[in-house]
Specification:
This protein is mostly helical. Helix content is 51%, strand content 6%. It has five helices and two strands. The chain has helices at residues 2-17, 21-41, 85-95, 107-120, 130-143, and strands at 54-57, 63-67. Strands 1-2 form a two-stranded antiparallel ribbon. Strand 1 (54-57) and strand 2 form a beta hairpin.
Amino acid sequence: MKVGLLKTRLPRLRQRLQPLWPWLRWGTAALLALLLVLDFAFPPPLPRQRDTSTLVVAADGSPMRAFADAEGVWRYPASVDSVSPLYLQALLTYEDRWFWRHPGVNPLAILRAGGQLLRGGRIVSGGSTLTMQVAAFSIRIRARPGAS
């Protein structure tokens, strides 16, 4: 029954929306260009060095004592070189397999998640990327009382 309704309504819907496609395309392109310009003009603040835990080391570089940060969380600075390539590969594969192929927002993942939401009537999967997760995390940290 639903398939029959889709076959009859979908062509009519396409006909009605056809004049809007150029406006939607150019409007989307303009919006994305504006967001890119705003991102370059006002980049989000990155955590400062003091946002990490303190590690006291001996003269030879071996750790002697560690202190948690002001919130009692253990955060150690790490560079890409100090992390195992296998861990980075596993992280990217699990969290955002298209990380190197999109500009921070994966439109296909968002469309997929939106389609699943419309079809299922509930959230089935998300469309966030690692970049979006870092942005959301930094916003939550700044919104916390006492955070600077």
